[in-house]
Amino acid sequence: MARPRTFEEYLASLVPPSVRGVDRRTLLAGGVSLSALALAGCGGDSGSGSSTSASGGGSAAAATGEVTLGSNQSDAVPKAAIQAVVDAFQKANSGLTVKVNTVDHNTFQENINNYLQGSPDDVFMWFAGYRMRFFASQGLAGDISDVWSGMSGLSDAMKKSSTGDDGKQYLMPSTYYPWALFYRKSLWEEKGYEVPKTLDDLKTLGAKMKADGIDPIAFGDKDGWPAMGTFDQLNLRVNGYDFHVALMAGKEDWAGDKVKKVFETWRDILPLHQADSLGRTWQEAAQSLQQKKSGMYLLGTFVAQQFEQGAEQEDLDFFTFPEIDSAIGADAIEAPIDGYMMRAKPKNEAGAKKYLAYAGSKDAQQVLLAKDPSVIGANSEVDTTSYTSLQKKSAEFVASAKSIAQFMDRDTRPDFASTVMIPAIQEFIKNPTDIDGITKNIQAQKVSIFGS
């Protein structure tokens, strides 16, 4: 089973079997396929209305005509949720219509580069982080800073994750899901475990769990991507958010002392993880948490997919990865954000910005949540009374974060993540003593891919 891409995929009991994992590491795949040509034609020439600049609350209020929307939400539940948002928008804006062009999720991602360089839709769905900044820096996305200026309910961390290298905003966030250390409350109450605040606390807790015959940290990296989350958490705690983002962007030395310290810290706590992780899927690791054979699991909220709806899911709780350096703290988290971007030169800019302003609002996100109750709205003003306890805590967790990372394979080039980092991290797990060799190899390949 492929990795869940977004938060709407994390609860199997809430989401139909058709809503499942997506391979997010095939971005910018080479070649123009028939599906790429189909994508390039999604924008068409049917757009109408003003093409002048307009903010969400300014002259965009007079926007008319058709706005085209490129959607990667092809599964039944999220597709219906997007249509509900579109319907509500059109009802409130009689002069505007939205034409949704839905494309299979994998196809959309694999051909995004050709799509944006062809004739893309006015607005298209995409991700925060490096993947957003990359297209903005290539001049393939439109500046929506004026739309942001009229928004409320979007935190500074959300804004930072939606900002390009030039300081302008290019993404309107819609939903997200956080990564953290998950545990079963009943097991911890039975054993008297307490949430660790520092890395030393985590080591002490791990030793106690081992003495109780429990694997401290569930771990499965058969598919390559899960361990990326462990590296990210450690790097955020050891070196901080700014260094982490620069490292992912190819601007720092992977063979330097800072990265070596991350691997050294990981090597120190690797014995707390389940053994033989390279032969175990994330689902199998999550099942060990569900069965109380493991005490914790570092993963996204989709870990709950392996828990039965109701009491078992209510028994699931989480905490942020503990502090390692008091000067850096623990207020940077990882919570992949999905949202909307605008093409560089939309056929209906006023209408596009009007839609973006609505999509980022609490009203739009509440409409979406009514159709897809598994997602977390990015706007902090969304009514959370219908949220599960896990959703409520997730919303509070992200709202209180100072900085939000997007996960390694969103924060860096996808080819670097898949062809360099997956084998490098798996080699480290097999042989954690050769940190110098592993980091030198990563750096050499980084130079080859990034050019410096």
What do these coordinates show?
The protein has 20 helices and twelve strands. It is 42% helix and 13% strand. The chain has two domains: 7-177 and 338-386, Periplasmic binding protein-like II (D-Maltodextrin-Binding Protein, domain 2, 3-Layer(aba) Sandwich); 179-334 and 413-450, D-Maltodextrin-Binding Protein, domain 2 (3-Layer(aba) Sandwich), CATH 3.40.190. The strands form three sheets. It has a six-stranded mixed beta sheet, with helices on both faces. The chain has a four-stranded mixed beta sheet with strand order 6-7-5-8. Strands 9-12 form a two-stranded parallel sheet. The chain has helices at 34-40, 76-92, 105-110, 112-117, 130-137, 145-148, 156-161, 185-191, 199-211, 226-238, 241-248, 257-269, 282-290, 311-314, 349-359, 362-371, 389-399, 408-411, 414-430, 435-450, and strands at 65-71, 96-102, 123-127, 172-176, 179-184, 215-218, 294-300, 316-319, 332-334, 337-342, 376-377, 403-405. α10 (226-238) crosses α12 (257-269). With 452 residues, it is of the alpha/beta class. The chain is globular, with a radius of gyration of 22 Å. InterPro entries: Bact_solute-bd_prot1, SBP. Pfam families: SBP_bac_1. This is Extracellular solute-binding protein.
